[in-house]
Design goal:
Chain lengths: ~80, ~375, ~290
């Protein structure tokens, strides 16, 4: 899975088959916080200037973070 | 011997016919005196060839539309006059930096501003060279008869395709509205340059590759080469760059496309120049008076000669310099307050006297005036 | 169509995430837009809409003028043209006439389309030439760092309206409709799914389609006008500041005050320019493309 050819520094959180994968491209992320604020289950948080996963278990894979990310920086599957 | 097919027509009509002969299939323009007949003629003629005629909302839209159409593969033309030519300048710069072929006709009228719309002039010569901001290439042709308007329009399209740059045709209201019987060229009689298309794989296509001085072919939108065109400085692949080295190289390259081919682009008519002692450098309608004057002088035994640039930009510095070496003086009659005059002075490098004959009352320069000035040097 | 999903305790993926890589040019991301700028959300909606059409990348041309929104074409793998300030529609018109089979999409902003390009905007709508005009409307000149634009509301602060803007704003949709556009809609970056649907309909429409896309500029408009975060701007301007067409229909005018109507506002069939031109060519006895 890739967003663009030069996808780099992919941080993949894989904790077994039943848990969602949240991929954050730290090169693309600008830390605007939109994904954090619109996440209905409070999965994400700011770490430094970038977004990070805080509570993966709560993720419902609704993909709101992806759909409202202006920077092609986060995907959930 | 079969007589050539001749047709009686106006300069502006001849321009339209030349455009169609050259393969022009898109025209966008805005009505303005004294160029409007080009639009009127093409609105009738182009649809017959499946071509597009569009009357736009202004001259800015016109220059932009022809560049858009050219990227869609159509040889494109717009025609205007002074005020409209001023409005088009930014768009001409865009065509220069993006290297999109197109032809712009400016039928010169009196200015500045609205000036005297029906009055002829030759006062946009410097604007044709320096009108748009930034260093850029400039090719401008100055036909001097109805027949020549047709030929030079074809040449304008050829140069534009060959060098991937806008080409300007400058003539004045007098020739634009003058009627002459002209010979219509047969198909294939005059060379028509077609656009060089890329043959490489789309992913390897570089629309702005320098290719050691060879001009990169231009792909047509929608034919598989999904390239990017921008008025920002761009690298060989067409995408914007901040790299100062690439920016410098790109600017030099677009200017050098013309500068390095001056000998191929510049065409001059020489009239009684071989033994001339007094030279006249004239273009467009003023060259008609000058030619008459030179002929009259020769009848009197005065060795006058005429150098008539058909290409005013790039300026024929070499030819003028050579003439300056040979003659006592060069006269420059033009319908402005001194434009080409200064270029002639520059090219002459002090080797002879250079004198301008200027007129801006919207009446042509009378041959008598030129004769009087020639006689002053005998 | 509200797309905000309600949290469910299921761990199953509803769908695999949309793969934008088919449309994004390699090596061009990250884009130049500021943190929290809605342009990226709009672009993603557009790419999903284009994907739904099932047409090849070769069939689309993206044309733009100057400004933040106008940087869109550089990132996407179509026939792309980034032109002069305000002039995108004129270039797009020329291109469309030379290549009528291309689907031309213009990405432009409130300043580019309505101030410097206002004349081209109304005339393009008048011709009803087949084209999608996406106005990324963030009420500000972002690229030149925050001057008021033709859509900035009265009283708002910008670098050139420090005492509050005294000019009346344009309503993009009313202007488009009055000028002759045959598809007029409004969407927002916040309502990304609705926007995607509108854009798909706009692409499928034959004629001039104008979409007023309410979008946020947190860097300038937000900062000057006391919005704390990009998401707060999206909530207040895009969500609370708009109302769906259907919902608005039953409400009295006082309830609609300060709200912009979202959805496909106007749609009409009217002869389209390239088709009319083809007929003209036939009439003239020429061969059409």
């Amino acid at each position: 899975m890739k967003i663009a050819e030069d996808l780099s520094r992919v941080e993949e959180t894989e904790k077994g088959d039943d848990l969602p994968n949240i991929v954050i491209n730290e090169t693309y992320c600008k830390g605007c916080g939109i994904c954090i604020d619109f996440c209905p289950t409070d999965v994400l948080e700011m770490r430094g200037n970038l977004v990070a996963v805080k509570n993966l278990e709560a993720c419902t894979k609704c993909q709101l973070c992806d759909l409202r990310c202006p920077d092609f920086a986060i995907q959930v599957f | 011997m079969a007589e050539k097919k001749k047709k009686f027509m106006q300069g502006n009509e001849a321009c339209s016919e030349g455009a169609i002969y050259a393969g022009c299939r898109f025209y966008a323009g805005y009505p303005i005196t004294p160029s409007t007949e080009i639009a009127e003629t093409l609105s009738v003629r182009l649809p017959k060839f499946g071509g597009v005629f569009m009357q736009m909302e202004d001259e800015i839209a016109s220059i932009c539309a022809i560049v858009g159409a050219s990227l869609g593969g159509a040889k494109s033309l717009t025609a205007t006059s002074g005020p409209g030519f001023s409005l088009m300048q930014e768009g001409i710069g865009f065509a220069c930096i993006t290297e999109v072929p197109c032809v712009i006709v400016n039928v010169m009228r009196s200015g500045p501003s609205t000036g005297f719309p029906t009055g002829p002039s030759q006062s946009d010569v410097m604007q044709a060279k320096w009108g748009t901001h930034g260093d850029h290439p400039a090719i401008a042709l100055t036909p001097a008869s109805v027949q020549e308007i047709m030929y030079e329009t074809i040449r304008a399209f050829n140069l534009s395709e060959l060098y991937r740059t806008p080409v300007i045709i400058l003539y004045d209201e007098i020739i634009g509205h003058m009627r002459e019987a002209i010979a219509l060229p047969e198909p294939d009689e005059i060379e028509v340059v077609e656009r060089k298309k890329p043959s490489c794989k789309p992913e390897e296509y570089k629309p702005y590759a320098s290719n050691n001085g060879d001009i990169a072919p231009l792909a047509v939108y929608g034919e598989g080469y999904r390239f990017h065109v921008t008025g920002l400085y761009h690298a060989e692949d067409g995408f914007p760059t901040n790299n100062t080295k690439l920016i410098g190289e790109a600017n030099e390259r677009i200017v050098n496309k013309v500068n390095k081919n001056i000998d191929k682009i510049c065409i001059n008519e020489e009239f009684y120049l071989d033994d001339a002692e007094i030279g006249v450098v004239a273009y467009g309608v003023s060259s008609k008076s000058a030619k008459f004057a030179v002929k009259e002088m020769r009848k009197k035994g005065i060795k006058a000669g005429l150098l008539r640039p058909k290409t005013i930009w790039p300026f024929p510095y070499k030819a003028v310099n050579k003439l300056a070496k040979q003659v006592k003086a060069i006269l420059v009659p033009e319908m402005n307050l001194g434009q080409v005059y200064y270029e002639v002075e520059r090219a002459s490098r002090g080797q002879c006297e250079v004198k301008g004959i200027f007129k801006v009352d919207t009446e042509a320069i009378h041959p008598k005036k030129i004769m009087e000035e020639i006689e002053k040097f005998t | 169509m509200e797309t905000a999903a309600t949290p469910k305790k299921t761990k199953k993926a509803k769908q695999t995430p949309f793969d934008y890589s088919k449309y994004i040019r390699g090596g061009k991301l990250p884009h130049i837009w500021c943190p929290g700028c809605g342009h990226g959300i709009v672009l993603k909606s557009l790419l999903r809409a284009i994907d739904t059409t099932g047409r090849s990348n070769n069939d689309f041309a993206l044309v733009s003028g100057i400004g933040c929104s106008s940087r869109t074409p550089g990132y996407v793998d179509f026939n792309t043209l980034h032109t002069l300030h305000g002039r995108a529609l004129a270039y797009a018109t020329g291109l469309k006439m030379a290549k009528p089979n291309l689907k031309v999409i213009v990405t432009t902003g409130d300043g580019d389309a309505l101030a410097i390009g206002g004349n081209h905007f109304i005339h393009t709508c008048r011709r009803n030439i087949d084209m999608v005009i996406m106005v990324y409307n963030n009420y500000i000149y972002g690229m030149t760092s925050g001057q008021f634009s033709p859509t900035t509301a009265q009283g708002m602060i910008a670098t050139t309206s420090r005492y509050g803007n005294i000019e009346s704003p344009f309503d993009v949709c009313k202007m488009a409709e009055a000028s002759g556009a045959t598809f007029v809609a409004r969407g927002t970056a916040y309502h990304y799914g609705e926007l995607e649907k509108i854009l798909y309909e706009a692409i499928m429409h034959k004629g001039t389609a104008v979409i007023d896309i309410i979008d946020s500029c947190p860097t300038y408009y937000g900062r000057f006008n006391k919005f704390k975060t990009p998401s707060e701007m999206m909530e207040k301007i895009e969500k609370e500041g708009t109302i769906p067409l259907k919902q608005a229909a039953g409400l009295p005018p006082e309830k609609l005050q300060g709200k912009l109507i979202r959805g496909i506002i106007y749609k009409k069939e009217r002869p389209e320019y390239t088709s009319e031109y083809a007929k003209l060519v036939e009439k003239a006895g020429g061969k059409s493309k």
